[in-house]
Design goal:
The complex is a heterodimer of chains A (about 160) and B (about 190). Chain A is built from four helices and three strands, in the order H-H-E-E-E-H-H. With about 160 residues, chain A is of the alpha+beta class. In chain A, strands 1-2-3 form a three-stranded antiparallel sheet. The relative contact order of chain A is 0.15. Chain B is α/β, with parallel strands linked by helices. Chain B contains four helices and eight strands, in the order ααβαββββαβββ. In chain B, a hairpin with a 2-residue loop joins strand 6 and strand 7. Chain B is globular, with a radius of gyration of 16 Å. The chains are: A alpha+beta (about 160), B alpha/beta (about 190). At the A-B interface, strand 1 of A face loops of B.
């Protein structure tokens, strides 16, 4: 795989992650804005209609790194073909079929070189910032509860 | 990524409609069925999407390779090289019907573990008349699919002679389908 291809895949993974973590309201708003802005003709074809299923989430044990089954999680997946021919996929945690479909549509549109940078700026970056901010708030709250253990060491400074 | 193509639009009801069609075709051999719910109006693809899943090994005949990605995406079915291990065989070239014995014929205790062949033809009408008789047929029925290979009647006679073993055949042409179960006797 060329370096370009690997970089392209990484960028796509990042936007797919942002889309999957976004809430339905945010995605719906972004989609409606896009349609209005671009005078958008829908013309999407559904390859796989949104469907719900279970996936076994795997974790790794801390010490040995051995994998284990964490538990089954519900995911919703969808695949669409954009009018331009690009195939979009989405796999989202939860049961929201509308969100999975919108995420798949964005994934398809983002693969179009003509639309990619515009969509990254207008849709993905704001969502990514909101998600990063939320993570930072959670991290700060968790950090505030951190306990420092001090040991008394005799004879040493 | 290449295009995996459309699956069944309504997986539950469309697969039921297609299944019912195949059931009717097997129960009344040689009659032409037109199921609803075929994606792209394609009988071969519709039947394949209906029957295949991750437990059904499938063998693809020459020329059917184009379906590989679509089936892997929508069905997750194992695609195997050995026709004698296949639960289903997808054929888009009728000459593949010249050798029916290379497929799984079933076992005496499990005659159902034979390969079910699904073959796409240019048309289910307009070819030389085949006279069908047997269970599900009142007397005889003329069935005239196009482009069956010359040796087909002999191959079918050998298949029929193995009852209860042997293969069953679903023939599709566009959005029409018909079936020849192994119980069916065929005369030219």
């Amino acid at each position: 795989m060329s370096q370009n291809q690997a970089a392209g895949i990484e960028v796509r993974q990042q936007w797919m992650a942002v889309l999957a973590r976004a809430g339905l309201a945010e995605l719906q708003t972004a989609w409606d804005d896009l349609k209005v802005a671009a005078n958008f003709q829908t013309g999407f074809q559904t390859l796989r209609a949104p469907e719900r299923g279970l996936v076994m989430a795997r974790g790794r044990a801390g010490g040995s790194g051995a994998p284990f089954n964490l538990g089954e999680i519900t995911v919703t997946r969808c695949s669409v073909r954009a009018p331009g021919g690009h195939i979009g996929h989405a796999t989202c945690l939860g049961t929201d079929v509308t969100k999975a479909e919108i995420a798949a549509r964005f994934d398809a549109l983002l693969q179009d070189p003509a639309q990619q940078s515009g969509l990254l700026d207008r849709v993905i970056d704001p969502l990514a910032r909101t998600q990063a901010d939320a993570r930072a708030v959670t991290a700060r709250k968790a950090a505030a509860t951190k306990v420092e253990f001090f040991t008394m060491v005799r004879g040493e400074s | 990524m290449d295009d995996p193509g459309v699956g069944l639009v309504d997986p539950v009801f469309d697969s039921q409609a297609i299944f019912r069609s195949v059931l009717d075709a097997m129960a009344r051999p040689g009659t032409i069925q037109k199921p609803s719910g075929l994606p792209d109006g394609d009988g071969l693809v519709g039947v394949a999407l209906m029957v295949l899943d991750h437990d059904t090994p499938v063998w693809m005949g020459k020329g059917a390779e184009g379906l590989r990605q679509r089936l892997t995406f929508h069905c997750g079915c194992p695609i195997i090289d050995d026709p004698s291990q296949a639960a289903f065989a997808l054929l888009t070239d009728p000459t593949e019907l010249e050798r029916l014995d290379r497929f799984a014929q079933g076992e005496p205790q499990y005659p159902d573990r034979s390969t079910t062949l699904i073959c796409a033809l240019p048309s289910l009408e307009g070819g030389p008349d085949l006279h069908l008789s047997g269970p599900g047929i009142d007397g005889t029925l003329a069935f005239a699919p196009a482009s069956l290979p010359d040796g087909f009647a002999d191959q079918w006679a050998m298949n029929h002679a193995q009852y209860p073993l042997g293969i069953d055949l679903i023939l599709t042409a566009g959005s029409a389908l018909a079936a020849l179960p192994r119980t069916c006797r065929l005369e030219v």
